[in-house]
Amino acid sequence: MHLKKIDVSQLHDLRDISILTFKETFEDQNTPENMQWYFENTMNIDHIQEELLNPDSSFYFAYNQNQTIGYLKLNFNNAQTENVLKNNGFEIERIYIKKEFQGNGFGSELFSTAINLGIKKGCNQLWLGVWEHNYKALAFYKKKGLIAFDHHVFQLGDDPQTDILMYLKF
User: Fold this and answer.
1) Looking at the 3D structure of the chain, how many domains does it have?
2) Sign (positive/negative) of CA torsion 21, 151, 51, 123?
3) 34-82: per-residue pLDDT in tens?
């Protein structure tokens, strides 16, 4: 697996994989209306372009044998969605592997790569939010040594969901 930083010319590809992986992960547990609300309000071209142009955010496509298998979004400094570890930490806001490529170690490799990218930026800890009902992700992060420390609300349409905030020092 290798990563390539995403630029504005790949905006539509980023939107497409964002919608695909979010659907694969969450559509069975949420209403179509709430999913559509999220896509229209958060995964629209203008919003993603704004995120992509933020100098404190970085997006990467993950490739295996020239096939896009997932993507990663990291937030540093003021791009972080919560004011928790801004001095020496960073946020993994999105880390997704397409369903067809899961179970092959790519998620672990992408997570390790995220840590290395943070270290290169001078960070010594990371944090992320994970939905309380995403048991697969919770187990993955616990196995990687992340510790729950707080929670916040993630609004999905008319459904206020609880994300567990987890961190890891390295």
Assistant:
1) 1
2) negative
3) 999 999 999 999 999 999 999 999 999 999 999 999 999 999 999 999 9
* pLDDT greater than 90 at residue 84: no
Q: What CA dihedral angle connects 160, 108, 50 and 35, to 10 degrees?
A: -30
CA 73 – CA 63 distance, rounded (Å) = 15
Q: 60 catalytic, yes or no? A: no
CATH number at residue 76: 3.40.630.30
Domain assignment of residue 135, given as a range: 2-169
pLDDT of 106 reads 98
Options 38, 60, 141, 167, the catalytic residue: 141
On the question of pLDDT at 134 being above 80, the answer is yes
**Residue 85: pLDDT over 90:** no
Q: 69 is written with which tokens?
A: 């298998």
Q: Contact at 8 Å (CB) between 58 and 73?
A: yes
